[in-house]
Amino acid sequence: MKISGKTKIFAVIGKPVDHSLSPAIHNAGYSAVRMDAAFVAFEPENARAAIEGARGLGITGLAVTIPFKVEAFDACDWTDDFAAKIGAVNTVLIGETIRGYNTDVPGIVEALEATGTNMDGLSGVVIGAGGAARAAVAALAQSGCARVDLLVRDPEKAKPVAKMLATNLSLPVALEQLGESASDDRVKKAGVLINATPIGLRDDEFPIDPALIRRALVLVDLAYRPGGTPLIWKAKTAGALTVPGESVLLEQALIQFKLHTGKTAPREDMNAALLGGKPA
Ligand code: NAP
Q1: Is 263 tagged catalytic?
Q2: pTM across the whole model
Q3: Which of 57, 88, 196, 212 qualifies as a FRET site for 158, CA 20 to 30 Å off?
Q4: What is the 2 CA–ligand 1 centroid distance (Å)?
Q5: pLDDT tens-digit series, residues 68-115
Q6: Contact 7, 17 (CB under 8 A)
Q7: pLDDT tens readout for residues 193-222
Q8: Which atom of ligand 1 lies at the shortest distance from residue 133's CA?
């Protein structure tokens, strides 16, 4: 990559951001389509100031990651339908107005579709109630699930999120406390389970009885780490259909690339950079 005065800059904002694979994936994409562009990472204090700063520098596209997706939503003048429904943005285009998109939702939908499973009428379980969980619930609604249960460690705190999702997605969304028998019961009845917490990035014990992870389950772990997460390994052993976080990351990045550059994303090259697995 040759940087010059004409090189166009894109960036991801997050905190922490040093683990992000987005720079590696997007830079591989620019090289493949011979675009004079570079993708870097920033760890700002807050999203709004970062977006205003980017505008001042003439940066036209940002990716947004943990913990700024909700704050970035608030900083936008316009958002796409997915972002409006879940109140979270992971892609920002900066021009005369600030436009927000959520590519996590279609990214999860694409990754679920790739399993070949018909989701119509299935019961979904999502662990967590943060930005990724909101996208996961919207993706399950989009894929045809009939209801979603959010399993969380603090149901009182998650109540407004569950209510907002149920209203905006016209979907029954119930809350259960992780570790209680009612939450185990929901996992037993689920056809698809999505982990939308960072559990598994270290060697945390997973708050779901491994015996509940069975063959007739599609299991998505949005958390990812080299070699796979303990949850993905348990699910593979149980014979479940698994979707690793890297698959979702790639699908959402392909859509984000097109939004940022207007060019079709080179899937093979971006996937090879992802499989290379080294944060850039
Ligand atoms: P977030 O907004 O900070 O939300 C994290 C959620 O996890 C919160 O509900 C939090 O509960 C819960 N949580 C954290 N530690 C927990 C624990 N030990 N036990 C139970 N619940 C716990 O973060 P996010 O943006 O949703 O991201 C969540 C994960 O998904 C991250 O690992 C992120 O990297 C990953 N992700 C991956 C992709 C992808 O493309 N693969 C896309 C988006 C996100 P409290 O509210 O109680 O703290």
Answers
A1: no
A2: 0.95
A3: 212
A4: 36
A5: 999 999 999 999 999 999 999 999 999 999 999 999 999 999 999 999
A6: no
A7: 999 998 888 766 788 888 899 888 999 999
A8: 26
